[in-house]
Amino acid sequence: MSATPLQILDTCPTIDRPGLLVMDVDSTLIDEEVIDELGEAAGVGELIREVTARAMNGELDFAQALDARVALLKGLPVSIFDDVYARLHFTEGALELIGTLHAHGWKVGVVSGGFHEIVDRLAEDAGLDYWIANRLDADPGTGTLTGAVRGPIVTKDVKLRSMRAWADANTIPQRQTVAVGDGANDLPMIGAAGLGVAFCAKPAVRAAAPHTIDERDLMRVLDFLRR
């Protein structure tokens, strides 16, 4: 039996009811890829950018690609995070989107394959409700990165589980969840959300996502929620 228009409408998120938006960070919440910025500081920018692009397009296993790139950062001083953070830019419309959703009773979180050393600051500046990211290991004696990730890596499965856990914690039904990202590791949460959006995404992600936004303006997400 086919669904009626009313049934279809009821399965989609609307801004008029409390919901949850979960975004990726690099190239979504912000314009830059933090790992690429760190690579530039380490003098291996081109190599890291190549691996990043392949991982985000789904050509490489994300966890293995992350380990390989982080190993190239060994020896960088932890003070590099201050320098990198100063060069980052919130994507156009990001802060306005977060503020608008908060005004309508929504929760907003980010799930990042990047690093807490940067994401914690972004979350504070953006007023986010939830965030997770990887954490880089550092030698307290020398104040430099060891070239390893400390703790479990934030994979595509972790991103999906986090979205579901945050929704459950706020008694938000799946149809009121929105997931936005640009990389292959965002696809599981994009596919599971009530509204999944590939944002200025890699070709393979655009092809697999239910919806796409090709303009670098996160306020365009509201086009799907206001009806």
From TrEMBL:
The active site is at D24, D26. It comes from the Bacteria. InterPro entries: HAD-like_SerB, HAD-like_sf, HAD_sf, PSP. It is an enzyme of class 3 (hydrolase). Its EC number is 3.1.3.3. SUPFAM superfamilies: HAD-like. Belongs to the HAD-like hydrolase superfamily. SerB family. This is phosphoserine phosphatase. It comes from Bifidobacterium criceti.
